[in-house]
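Question: I have long wanted to understand how a fold can be written as tokens. Here is the record:
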Amino acid sequence: MLMMGSRALVSLQGRSEEGQVRALSEKEAPPPSFFPFSSIRAGKTKEGDFMIKEIVLKALAGMGVEADCSASLLTVAGVEVEIPKVQTQGDVSTPVALGLAGVLRKPPRTIAQEIVSAIKAMPQGEMAAFDTIEVAGPGFINFRFKKDYLYEQLRLLYKQRELYLRVDVGRGRRVLIEFVSANPTGPLHVGHGRGAALGNALSNLLQCAGYVVDREFYINDAGRQVRLLGHSVFAAYNTLLGTPYPFPEEGYRGELVEQVAGEIASIDGKRYVGAEFDNCAQHFIDYSYKRMLKEIEEALEAFGVRFDNWQSERVLFDSGMVKGGIDRLRNMGYVYDKDGAVWFKSSELGDEKDRVIIKQDGQYTYFASDMAYHVMKIGRGYDELINIWGADHHGYIPRVKAVLRAEGLQELRYGCTSDKRLTVLLVQMVSLLRDGKPVQMSKRAGEFITLRDVIEEIGADTTKFIFLTRRPDSHLEFDMEAAKRQSSDNPVFYVQYAYARINSIFKKHQTDALSLFIERVDSLDLSCLDTDEELQIIKKLVLYPMTFQSAVKNREPHRITFYLQELAATFHPYYNKHRILTEDNTLTDARLLMCACISIVLKEGLRILGLSAPEWM
């Protein structure tokens, strides 16, 4: 198998890091997202919570916008809320006025000013969270929080913890995430590891968001590659026992192939020496791929990645699912014969051309079993399939989606019709470096650093974190020497060290961060947390649910990685500048509460990424 959004209702714009206006593409645009204080839990809005989007919608309704544009626009999905990258642009911002300009035929800044005026005309209770609401640039609306509101949110975070940090987006929907699925022909390399880290983190993320998630590894135990592996081991077996045998062209080499050949020799002796490969092929194929699969499973276990299901490709053939699926599509008019081969009419279903599913020699293509596999996955009751594939399989996406369209399975049976049953995340390759110099790798020759080698050298946590420091569809350079340094240059060390530092503070204070204020958090005086650094830390903590939901909606766990790095980057300078334990009990308690909340968020984020939160470093 392969190793590896929905369209906005209005066209909106956002800021670049320099504050310049830029158009947001579908991939870049932040998803519709409830403000953290309006997280819906158990179908209800928590009492006292605040919805920034509902305020904007209420203002728009008061302006009579509903009379000027479609009712579908006046939904939560029609209002985007984002966190500006530049502090001077507010705590949160919405570009909704820019999207309405074409509909209302007014300059976006005029629309923004009208929205702000409508908000300010609301009862004071609606405005309780905000210090200022201002129009900026060509039509952005920037909101700034009142200190008292931030203090109250800090208390809520401490009391509610996971309930505060998570947003129930999934509502129990079932998702199957298929990832890694490397051919069982050799050890995992770092490219597989990047897919494993993404799949594991995404599974954790969606589970925290209320989805029911299953993780699946698809085993390519049928077809040319496993046969080639068996033939390679057969050649190594004969050579090992004194009867040189020519290695198959494009065969697999390396220490592990020789090790497997030695294992067969120790079990079967010279039983197969001099035999024809075709007469003992299944024995060598089965032993070899199962041995390689065991190596893969052990490497993933060391990486902290486990699967709920291991699906065999061979079972799809043996059960008749592949043949049955082709026959069904033929009866539907989507399969035809041409030039001695069997073809699927994928060009009629969104693909660029038709695809061969049975070759002229009668052999099935890989696509044939993939067709049956994807239909079978949805038949098992999943609402969404997520596949994590290598970027070189980009062209494979349309043909698989064509199968689901033919079966009537591509669109979801509920909710927004733009939601798809199949989501494919593409993962770019990893360039492995040592002190900036490339490490050469060749899987066929057996000369490459395996994922297990990397884990043993720098640790699973560091490896996973670095894999998640870039968008999966961007190229990643992984310098092993830099990853071993315990400094701010090592991103995972920087984040985990923040957690360990906070733990050491509470050890010194001889208290427990999670229980110290459990009975008196509401009575703490937090007004002394008024330095710019403290307010920025509190804002960062309070905005975590917004980052969380954005990561969920976009299926991008690396957003959590970025957040943790930013949070650590605000805490470390603060720690170096300010004493946490002071002679002023009121100030000490307030700073300890803030540190406790930082530790809660750090631990939650690290858990989603599949990393440990070490108490000491």
User: Anything to note?
Assistant: The longest strand covers residues 212-219. The chain has a mean pLDDT of 87.
